[in-house]
Amino acid sequence: MIEECGNAHWDGVRRMDQALFPEYAEGTEPWSPGRQLDDPASRTMALVSTSSGVVQGYAAVRPTGEVNFRLNLMVDPAWQRKGIGRSLLAQVENALVALGAVSVQVRVRADLTTGVSFALSSGYDEIHRMVGMSLDLRRLDHARLRPDDAVAEHGEIRFTDLGAEMSEDPEWVRKLHELHVTTLESWPNDDPYRPNRRPSLEDFDISSQKTAGHRNGSRLLQPVETMWATAALWAPPFIRPGGDGG
Q1: Residue 215: what pLDDT?
Q2: pLDDT tens for residues 178-207?
Q3: β-bridge mates for residue 14, sequence order
Q4: Largest CB tally within 10 Å, which of 75, 94, 136, 242?
Q5: Which of 43, 4, 30 is nearest to 224 (CA)?
Q6: CB 89 within 8 A of CB 122
């Protein structure tokens, strides 16, 4: 049975997330690529598939633009290959079409081949892959951070933070905003149906209290590849580039 996800289902959804991604359970990973658990406050809708009160599958979407959405979908390992994922996907896509959605985006870890096959067979097109890396500062060799001679020839390289830069140069945020806008056109877009938005300077304003990087990264340069895929959602029947809907 597919129904709206409520508070009574949330413990089952978390258990399913831990069964699918046990490596994220301890919360020590600086990044959780391809994880399908989301912030309930960000969701437009969330559905669960249940049997005798047991949560078998979960699907939720959140907006990434006015007519663009991101989908999270997972099925308990004990209930996979029984059509639950496709039933959830179909119901979510129908609801998105009713909302006037133009595209929906999914993220799948490249090493989870079953998930990749499911996305592609459902009519989603791969648009790019992302590699995540983390740095364990507890084992950092500072000598490795020294610039090589070729880089050093072009000027001094120093390590700093946002607060220091903003105190020395009040125009620093504006300059960083200009750099961002200049490079935006060539930056990979995770959803070709939603062009990269050019943020205003007000949107781009950065608090000096923010810091970059992960202070407790658990691995040193550990790559994790994530596949991003998207599907166009026009009026039914769905017209998906490169696929007939699976």
Answers
A1: 31
A2: 888 888 777 766 555 566 677 788 777 654
A3: none
A4: 75
A5: 30
A6: yes
Q: Which two tokens stand for residue 146?
A: 């020294």
Each domain of the chain, given as residue ranges in start order, spans 2-131+228-232, 137-204
Q: In the block, which residue shows the tokens 């220091």?
A: 164
Is 155 buried (19+), middle (13-18) or exposed (0-12) by CB count in 10 A?
A: exposed
Q: How many residues make up the chain in this entry?
A: 246
Bridge partners of 243, per DSSP, are 240
CB of 115 within 8 A of CB of 74? no
Cis omega (within 30 of 0) for bond into 241: no
Instruction: Note the pLDDT tens digit of each residue in 60-91.
Output: 999 888 888 999 999 999 999 999 999 999 99
Asked, as a colleague might, if the bond just before 147 is cis with ω within 30 of 0, I would say no
142 phi and psi angles, rounded to 5 deg: -65, -25
Q: Which homologous superfamily is 2-131+228-232 in?
A: Gcn5-related N-acetyltransferase (GNAT) (3.40.630.30)
